[in-house]
Design a protein that fits this description.
It is built from 7 helices and no strands. α1 runs antiparallel to α2, α1 packs antiparallel against α4 and α2 packs antiparallel against α5. The mean pLDDT is 91.
Length: 137
């Protein structure tokens, strides 16, 4: 498997979170684009590459090593200081459609374990995402 850049690894996690229930909703795809265009970690990334990177991720997921192989790649590429950011991006996408399906929860658990994130960090990220997605109705 080719080694992704740090930006690509971050996008891979968002794609994995979105595709976990075998359905990439418009809200989730839109959230990936919004994260890439607005989060400081992506400020030197060419947002026009999002679709190509997402397609690369899908090809890797269909490879013989599948999800575990992609998660291994991501964990190898991401520096420790960006692991919470990576999980936050994945959670942001999973929460975008305001419905957290069991498959999404399971994938987020796999990501959390592979990135070796502690429970308090994960809880804070989840609470922050829920607060951002809350509506008045």
């Amino acid at each position: 498997m080719p080694v992704p850049t740090t930006h690509e690894a971050l996008i891979y996690l968002m794609v994995i979170a979105s595709a976990s229930d075998r359905e990439m909703s418009d809200a989730e795809l839109g959230r990936i684009g919004a994260v890439v265009r607005s989060w400081p970690v992506f400020e030197d990334f060419d947002a026009d590459r999002i679709i190509d990177v997402a397609q690369d991720c899908q090809r890797l997921l269909n490879d013989t090593e599948g999800l575990d192989g992609v998660l291994d790649l991501v964990a190898d590429v991401l520096p420790a200081r960006l692991r919470d950011t990576a999980y936050a991006a994945a959670f942001e996408v999973a929460a975008a459609d305001l419905e957290m399906r069991l498959e999404e929860v399971r994938v987020l658990q796999l990501i959390r374990r592979r990135l070796d994130l502690d429970t308090l960090t994960v809880a804070a990220i989840a609470q922050g995402a829920k607060a951002r997605h809350r509506t008045l109705t």
